[in-house]
Design a protein that fits this description.
The complex is a heterodimer of chains A (91) and B (405).
Chain A lengths: L31 E5 L9 H5 L5 E4 L2 E5 L9 H5 L5 E5 L1
Chain B lengths: L14 E5 L1 H12 L3 E4 L6 H12 L6 E4 L3 H14 L3 E2 L4 H16 L5 E6 L13 H5 L6 E4 L3 H16 L7 E6 L8 E5 L2 H8 L26 H30 L6 E4 L6 E5 L3 H14 L4 E6 L1 E3 L3 H8 L4 E6 L10 H9 L8 E7 L8 H17 L6 E4 L4
Parallel strand pairs in B: 2-3, 2-4, 5-7, 6-7, 10-11, 10-13, 13-14, 14-15
Antiparallel strand pairs in B: 1-8, 6-12, 9-11
Chain lengths: 91, 405
């Protein structure tokens, strides 16, 4: 995301656009990256429920991948996975 | 006498009421009729919210009055209300302002045009309820605009002006309107009060730019702001206070149309041909004017520069007024414990650094904890200025006026 000058942003630290956190690349904060072994995954969706950043992608009721633009690498998904199919790998 | 058929001037439609400085503040608030007032009582400001709560109880205003449990909550409620889009006011003094501290900064940084009468009182310890400016001077870097008032009339009129200054789209900053505790707040004076509709027309209606309650255009107030944007938001605040330098005279000119009074950043009293001058704030200016009159009778070319705004700091106005003087005394009713004099002195002296004509400048710290300042003491300051001119030298940069040795 391009950083804007003081004349271009709303005053007072206000965010005037709903849902624009999506534009913020929080993935750059990550030091460990969740890597999923889809062969072991049973699509229980525990990771999807627990992820605090809505970074587990789901398609037609099945886990389809990880949104690395927003995943901060907290590791909760790896912790809650009953099949231990998510491994946290150093970036 | 009015000519037949000629409209009366708005000022001639005023009624004069015998009221205190606190009641003058409450009277201005009644006419402003803000959407929300959240406040907590503290001496010597109590009479403002007490009087105002009676207006609320008697149905004279439409205000949602929130009697909170502390000043921290008072300013927090004001921030919430102002963010929601309400025209919002509160009032406080000394330790109340100190307890608000965290939110005082948040109000300014979030650019919420809250107006707050502040009745100047000494900060503890030792505990004291009387006037000095340690409370508001401590808040000088909080991002609020600060107006200082000589008497109850100025309190009343400044609060009305403050609403317009605060809400101006190029400013959008909170304003504190200061008066001296007890000296002004509890002394009864004749105050000319406008007809309600004149104030209503002058302030107009308030439409917030980003009201939190506008569900059609959702906004977020107070998000985390780190290394990447915080600095830009502070730069915006600097610009807003700079804009206030332009906006305040525009609003003062509009106010002059209804009041016949020109409230600029400064008021000059007998400065035209003065050679020595005192710069002071609030009620001490009234006492100083009496001394100037006496000295003028004796042929001494004494003058007074009354500072009406400390934020924004009107450096250019001060320089153009004082640079013609031979010697100047800056009166500070607070001590900044820098070992270099009081806050007003430091900023005035700094403003002169690049000026071609700089008078000899000395500082007097006076009146702490409500210690009386009388005409004899002020006369002694002018006498010292005459001595400074004679010697062409400032012997003591920082003096303590009225303290026992």
């Amino acid at each position: 995301m391009d950083e804007k000058g003081w004349k271009e942003i709303p005053i007072g630290g206000l965010i005037t656009e709903a849902g624009n956190a999506e534009k913020y690349d929080t993935g750059s904060w990550r030091s460990f990256k969740p890597v999923m072994d889809k062969d072991k995954c049973i699509n229980c969706l525990f990771c999807w429920i627990y992820c605090p950043d809505s970074s587990i992608l789901v398609s037609e009721g099945k886990v389809s991948g990880i949104d690395y633009k927003h995943c901060k690498g907290c590791g909760i998904c790896a912790k809650v996975c009953p099949k231990k199919c998510i491994e946290m790998v150093k970036e | 006498m009015l000519e037949a058929g000629k409209d009366m001037l708005e000022t001639e439609k005023c009624v004069v009421k015998a009221i205190t400085g606190d009641q003058a503040a409450a009277e201005a608030m009644r006419q402003i009729n803000p959407d929300v007032v959240a406040a907590y009582p503290i001496t010597p400001q109590t009479e403002i919210v007490m009087t105002y709560s009676q207006f609320v109880a008697n149905g004279l205003v439409d205000t949602e009055f929130i009697p909170v449990e502390s000043e921290h909550s008072a300013m927090s409620a004001c921030v919430g209300a102002a963010a929601a889009g309400a025209r919002t006011m509160t009032a406080t003094s000394a330790n109340g302002l100190a307890l608000m501290w965290e939110i005082v900064y948040i109000a300014a940084s979030t650019r919420l045009p809250i107006v707050m009468p502040l009745v100047n009182r000494a900060l503890s310890a030792p505990i004291n309820i009387h006037c000095d400016h340690s409370d508001s001077m401590g808040a000088r870097d909080s991002g609020w605009i600060q107006m200082y008032c000589e008497n109850a009339q100025e309190v009343y009129e400044s609060i009305i002006m403050a609403v317009r200054i605060a809400e101006h789209p190029d400013v959008l900053l909170p304003v504190m309107v200061c008066q001296d505790g007890f000296i002004t707040s509890h002394a009864v004076e004749g105050v000319r009060i406008f007809e309600d509709r004149i104030v209503k027309d002058f302030i107009g209606s308030y439409k917030a730019l980003f009201p939190l309650l506008d569900v059609e255009k959702p906004v977020t107030y107070g998000p985390l702001d780190l290394q990447d944007y915080y600095f830009e938001h502070k730069r915006q605040q600097s610009e807003a206070i700079k804009n206030a330098i332009r906006v305040i005279p525009e609003i003062a000119a509009e106010f002059e149309k209804i009041s016949n009074k020109n409230y600029g950043f400064i008021e000059e009293y007998q400065m035209e041909d003065a050679e020595i001058a005192i710069l002071a704030l609030n009620s001490t200016c009234g006492t100083t004017k009496a001394v100037v009159d006496k000295l003028r009778g004796n042929g001494v070319k004494a003058g007074l520069l009354k500072l009406r705004f400390f934020r924004p700091f009107p450096a250019e106005k001060i320089i153009s007024s004082l640079s013609k003087m031979k010697a100047v005394a800056i009166l500070d009713r607070s001590e900044s414990f820098s070992n270099c004099g009081g806050p007003v002195f430091n900023e005035v002296r700094s403003a002169f650094y690049e000026s071609e004509n700089t008078p000899l400048i000395t500082n007097y710290i006076y009146g702490l904890g409500g210690r009386d300042i009388n005409t004899f003491q002020i006369e002694s300051v002018y006498n010292n200025l005459l001595e400074i001119v004679k010697q062409n030298k400032v012997k003591n940069l920082v003096n303590y006026l009225g303290v026992r040795g």
